[in-house]
Amino acid sequence: MLEQEIIVAGRPLRYRVKFNRRRKTRSLIRILPDGAVLVDVPVTVNLRQVRRWVAEQSEWLLRRRDEIEAAAGFVHPLAYRDGEAHLFLGEHYRLRLLTGRPMAQPQGIADRALCIHSADSDAGRIKRRLWRWYRHQAQTLFRQRLAELSAGVPWVDQVPALKLRKMRRRWGSCNARGIVTLNTHLIKAPWECIDYVILHELCHLRELNHSRRFYRLMDTVLPQWREVKRRLDERADFISNE
Hints:
The chain is α/β, with parallel strands linked by helices. The protein has three domains: about 1-70, no CATH class; about 85-135, no CATH class; about 135-240, Metalloproteases ("zincins"), catalytic domain (Zincin-like, 2-Layer Sandwich). Helix content is about 35%, strand content about 25%. It is built from six helices and eleven strands. It has helices at about 45-55, 60-70, 125-150, 190-205, 210-220, 225-240; strands at about 1-10, 10-20, 30, 35-40, 85-90, 90-100, 110, 115, 160-165, 170-175, 180-185. The strands form three sheets. It has a four-stranded mixed sheet with strand order 1-2-4-3. A four-stranded mixed sheet has the order 5-6-8-7, with helices on one face. Strands 9-11-10 form a three-stranded mixed sheet, with helices on one face. A hairpin with a 5-residue loop joins strand 10 (about 170-175) and strand 11. The chain starts with a strand and ends with a helix.
């Protein structure tokens, strides 16, 4: 079985080609339960024909794959390989492994790809390098956004101290000393979700509970917070996936 890939509107679409001797003329293309695309074709079909067929069906395939991924509890295991889709600020980017000199090829987002330096294909090392980049982005962007949102909240006199930590079940927290902790995974979420979590914690600076008073504060600073929370909760498994 061969693994192939095409890029559709900036999104990678990987598919497996199975040359089936028992098939004479009819070919089959389908989405497997794990979200993988399988193309089952007769041995007389060549890879160029398969690629053209997949391209013709790509819109349906991506839509169906998204539907499967949106199902409760379904998460693609991350392999940290070149071409794999990874999240950053709510967008999918194709992981591109850079093998040249670091000074000549800076890491980051370029041409709809998330570029990370890697001298080899070791998944563990690639993951560590990717997470160092994620953490650096989170430190920079979260601090900036925390300062911007704090300026618009009447009861916040100064920008609170910020910590980052990977958390399994929480997006953020705020303690009695006024220190805001944000889940590093949030760097993969859309900006509206990041804003929701920051504002949630800023409301805790005044109400260290989830009382009616707290939710009235949330309604004041972000009237649509319930809808944003729902969207964040729906994406939680994908955002927190490693």
